[in-house]
Write a structure and sequence with these properties.
DUF4440; SgcJ/EcaC family oxidoreductase; single chain; signal; 147 residues; NTF2-like_dom_sf; Steroid_delta5-4_isomerase
């Protein structure tokens, strides 16, 4: 019985441990938030003063505004009908112990198939505060055709 108490305590901490993961966990956390179509899921991903560039013509500043923009496309918008998946292993570069860049390609899927013209690359700047890695800045870019 004594062994069950520490195990139960460890299991109850699992959401906390998930956030304590390094910057390499952010792509999967972003994908999970997108695929859940729950704007609240994005709140845990972004620093309070984050900057998000979903397309070249737009810049959204602050977690609250970023989450609001995700809500517009995920609640009854076009994104509610899609999921995303990674196309490759993310490249993570630790610039300092608390700052990293992350780059990966992803596909937008509808009914399990890639949506033509919606292949994207995502670059993130992540920062850690008290060991909790979050997105400080990010930009979606169109994937260039193979050369």
């Amino acid at each position: 019985m004594r062994g069950l108490i520490p195990l139960a305590m460890l299991l109850s901490l699992s959401p906390v441990l998930a956030h304590a993961a390094g910057p390499e966990a952010l792509p999967d956390r972003f994908i999970a938030a997108w695929n859940a179509h729950d704007p609240k899921a994005f709140e845990q991903l972004y620093q309070v003063d984050a900057v998000w560039v979903p397309i070249a013509e737009e810049r959204t500043e602050g977690r609250e505004a970023i989450v609001s923009e995700f809500a517009k496309v995920h609640v009854g918008g076009w994104a509610a009908k899609t999921t995303i998946t990674k196309k490759d292993a993310p490249e993570v570069h630790l610039l300092r112990p608390d700052v990293a860049t992350i780059f990966f390609h992803m596909d937008f899927l509808k009914d399990g198939a890639p949506v033509p013209g919606l292949q994207r690359a995502l670059i993130l700047v992540a920062t850690a505060k008290d060991g909790d890695w979050k997105i400080a800045a990010g930009q979606l870019t169109k994937e260039s055709p193979a050369r």
